[in-house]
Amino acid sequence: MELVAPFTNIFNTGSILSAELLENTAFPLAAEHDIDDLVFEIGLWLSGLESFLHTHEQSFEHKNRVNEVTRDWTKEFRLTYSALIICSKLNFRLKKTFAEPRVSSGTLLSIDVEDSDDLSFVLRDAITINDGMIRAEPLKFEEWKVWNNLLAEKLRSSVVVRNFIDQADRSAEDYLPTSLRTILQSKKIPFADHADLNLILPRFAKILKSLSIVGRMLRNDEPLKPTLLIFSKVYEQTQELISYINNRLARFPDEEAELFNSLDAASYTASLELKKVYNQELTGLVGIRPAPSIYARIETAYALLSDSFQQILAGFARLIEPAVSVSDLFPNFRIKLEQSLNLRKQLWRVLQAVQAAEQNPEKKPLDDLKKELSGFLSETIGYLFFKDKETLERFGEEIFATTDKKDLVPILHRFGTYLETLSGQVNMRNVLANHPFEPNN
Fold this sequence. Notes:
The structure is a single chain. By secondary structure, the protein is mainly α. The chain folds into 3 domains: about 20-175; about 185-330, Four Helix Bundle (Hemerythrin (Met), subunit A) (Up-down Bundle); about 335-430. It has 16 helices and no strands.
C-alpha cells in the first residue's frame, strides 16, 4: 500500500499540534536532534513544497493532458499534507532541542525558538485547511488550483517561512567535501577561474545536500512518495544552475580554456541526467500506489543525480589537482565503484553459464549454472537496483524448479537475453564511466 500521511481527526483550530501525534506520526524521520540539521530539513521541505506547487505539473505528470481537468487530484492534496506534517514533526523536535540547555548550534543561526513558535501557527492553519479539503474527495483541478495558489501565497508571504528557507540555503552551500575546499584554498589558480568556481560549486553543494535527505530516507526505508517535493526543489536548483552556467559560457572570453570545457561538460551532463530522471523515472509517480514501484523509481532517480553531480564536482577539482579522483572527494563513491565492478563481473559469469547450459542442457553445465546462480542470488544481487532484483529472482526460481530440458531451454534463452540487457544497463552506470568492461580480467 502507498503510504503518504496518516489522516486522523486530531486538528483543533484553537491548538497548534498534538505532541503525541508529532512523536508517533507514521514518518520515521531520522534527523538527529541537532539544531543545524533540523533547521536545514525544515527549510528544505518548505522550499520543496513551494517548488512542488510551482513545477510538479511539468516535472512529474504524464505528458498526456487529455484527462487533466477531469481526473481526481486528491493525491496532490495528500502530498502537500504529507509535507506539512513532516515540517510539523521536525519543528516539534526543534522546539524540544531549543529547550535543552546542553545543546548549542555549531553555526550562527538566524532561527530561534520564537521562529519555531511562529512556524507552528503557519503550519497549523495550512494543515487544518488541507485536511478539510481532503475530506471532500474526490477533488478536481479547480480545487487543486485554488489550494495551490492559496498555499503558495501563504508560504511566500510568511516571514518565518522565508527565514527557514534562507537559512537552509546558506547552510547547504557548505556541503562541499572538505577535501575539495582544501584544494580550492591551497592551490594557486587564475583569479577569474577561482571566482567562477566559488560561484558555481556551492550550487552543486546545495543540490547534493538536498539529495542526501532522499538518500537517508531510502536507507531508513521511510515513506518515499513525499520525496517528490525534494525532487521538485532539485529540479528547480538544477535548471537554475544550467541556466547560470550557459550564461557564463556565452560570456566566456576563451573557448579553448580548460574551465570553459569543464563548464560546458557540466551543463551538458546535468541537462542529460535531468531529462533521464524527470522524463522517465519520476514521470507519473504522483499517481503510483505500490510501494515497491515507488522505491524502485526513487532509488534510480537518486542514484542518477547523485552520482553524476559527484563526478561533475570531481571534474572541476581535476582542473586544480589533476590526480584527484571522485572517491578522494566522496568515499562512498569508491564503495559504489567496487560493488558495480563486482556486479558486472558476476553478471558476465552467470551469462556465460546460462549460454553454456542453453547450448548443452546436460547435468554438468546445468550444475555449473545453478552454482553460479546460487552464489549470485545469495551475495551479488544486493548490488542491483531494486527494480531489477525481482525479475532476476523470478528467473532463478524458474530455473531451479524446471527439470524437463525441453521446458528449460526456452527459459534459459529468455534469461540470457535479459542478462545481456541488464549487463548493458549496469555498464552504463556513472560510476563505471571510466572503467570499460574487459571480460578476461
